[in-house]
Write a structure and sequence with these properties.
heterodimer, A: about 270 residues, alpha/beta, Rossmann fold, 8-stranded mixed beta sheet, B: alpha/beta, Pectate Lyase C-like, 2 domains, 6-stranded mixed beta sheet, 5-stranded mixed beta sheet, 3 helices, about 15% helix
């Protein structure tokens, strides 16, 4: 039971990919055989259920579990294609008025009895919602994008996580555009890790498939599709479980078909 | 009455503290931390321990500057005991130097009345203000304010001076737009009311 890993997925800034990462990591971990639960701690603006395509199966929520008007098993929604994954949906936004860190710890303690991985999808911001979510976590993944504002907010969040004694805190760099990075229009990987000084768990490249999959409610890692983001999320799940998978280098990613053609044209064959 | 944490070699404070607390009445606790080096998460655990036993902390005393800094950062009433002051040699200000170990992250604000030495970076969005000099053994990329009580001789020194803004006494300056060379330790000081940046002087401080 004590081997359960309770991981907070947070970022500070909104829209950098916390929920997408939670959904994809959840599926990837479950596919590797670990029993996994994703907990939507974003009570105000919940949408983890949408991304997982489970919205229409929700009957009870964390709210009823806390009020003891249902059992935990009744509230947990099993994923239709990936039975190792369960979702504990967020309740009514009115919960924000009375929810305390103790309540979150109580919910997570219940989940830790049953699962190997508990992923907590943290709300944006650093107010009560964040504090509640962080109170129950042991480790954290900080998601950021290579933008100044996202990095600044991530830095603030890391400071808060450190005072809460959460460790290890690892970094996921999302929505990386190798082309813009190599032309120095975007912060580089080194720029980001320089400021945040955290171990980099993974890079996720900007990928249109992410938008398609979130709208459909089928996380990318669900299929064996070979889109760059799907591979990145599977790699992150692998590294979380202790596998040694080398990080992709955005500088090398850039070498698309055209670059290879040009190289071929320039090589002197005769 | 004051509680004394045990010597580091004899027993860990986490084991000793519940016993110490049980001996005493329910008055607010006055804690002498001795040589213990306690960081912020240690303090949080300690405060939680006190909380569960229904006790409050009135003030703490320590001979370790790091303990005092982390306690002060959490808003505790912390006092440094003199006998192992690391920089006291030749200085006529007994409580002159505050040492902060670790990076100041966005949103942090470190304040002190004397000089401050930071072992770590000051990230964008973080602030340091000191009554005396600000020294950063790392990269200064946030806002630094030296001589915040009005001292015009205060300086700001960093291994890597890339601030958003510098303030000395009442003068304010934006950080340099063009990035200076790497590996050059620089200092900022007041010259006729304006802040100038130059290579750091190698002579001793003060």
């Amino acid at each position: 039971m004590s081997t359960t890993r309770t991981i907070l997925i947070c970022s500070g800034k909104g829209g950098v990919g916390k929920t997408t990462t939670t959904a994809n990591l959840g599926i990837a971990l479950a596919r590797s055989g670990a029993s996994t639960v994703v907990l939507d701690a974003d009570f105000g603006l919940r949408n983890l259920d949408l991304l997982l395509g489970l919205e229409n199966r929700i009957v009870y929520t964390a709210q009823e579990v806390l009020a003891e008007s249902c059992r935990l098993e009744q509230a947990l929604v099993k994923h239709k294609q990936e039975p190792n994954l369960a979702l504990l949906p967020a309740g009514n936004p009115r919960m924000l008025e009375w929810l305390t860190p103790k309540d979150m710890q109580a919910i997570v303690a219940l989940l830790e009895e049953q699962f190997d991985y508990v992923l907590i999808d943290c709300p944006a911001g650093i107010e009560d919602g964040f504090k509640n979510a962080a109170a129950a976590a042991r480790e954290a993944l900080v998601i950021t994008t290579p933008e100044v504002a996202a990095v600044r907010d991530a830095d603030r969040v890391i400071g808060l996580l450190n005072t809460q004694g959460i460790s290890p805190v690892q970094l996921v760099l999302n929505r990386v555009r190798p082309k813009m990075m190599s032309s120095q229009e975007m912060l580089s990987v080194d720029d980001v890790t320089d400021i945040l000084a955290l171990p980099l768990l993974g890079l996720v490249f900007e990928d249109e498939q992410v938008i398609v999959s979130t709208n459909r409610g089928e996380p990318l890692t669900l299929s064996d599709g070979n889109s760059p983001a799907a591979r990145a999320y599977s790699n992150i799940a692998g590294r979380l479980q202790g596998e040694e998978i080398p990080l992709l280098d955005p500088a090398k990613m850039r070498r698309g078909l055209r670059a290879k053609m040009r190289e071929l044209m320039q090589t002197k064959i005769f | 009455m004051t509680l004394h944490l045990p010597n580091q070699r004899s027993q860990h404070w986490k084991d000793a503290l519940p016993g110490l607390l049980n001996q005493e009445s329910s008055a607010p606790v006055e804690l002498d931390c001795g040589e213990w080096s306690l960081n912020c998460s240690d303090w949080q655990q300690l405060l939680q321990l006190l909380n569960t036993m229904g006790r409050q902390l009135r003030w703490i005393r320590s001979r370790n500057p790091l303990t005092v800094v982390s306690a002060a950062a959490l808003g505790l009433d912390a006092h440094l005991e003199g006998n192992c002051e690391p920089t006291a040699a030749g200085s006529d200000e007994p409580d002159g130097l505050l040492i902060h170990q670790g990076t100041l992250r966005s949103g942090d604000h470190l304040q002190c009345d004397g000089d401050v030495l930071i072992y770590g970076d000051v990230n964008p969005g973080a602030r340091v203000s000191a009554g005396g000099d600000v020294m950063v053994w790392g990269r200064l990329r946030g806002i630094a304010h030296a001589g915040c009580h009005g001292s015009t001789t205060a300086r700001i020194v960093a291994l890597h001076l890339r601030p958003v803004q510098l303030r000395i006494s009442t003068a304010v300056a934006r950080g340099p737009e063009d990035q200076p060379l790497d590996g050059l330790t620089e200092q900022a000081r007041l010259d006729q009311g304006a802040i100038v940046i130059e290579p750091a002087e190698t002579r001793r401080f003060r």
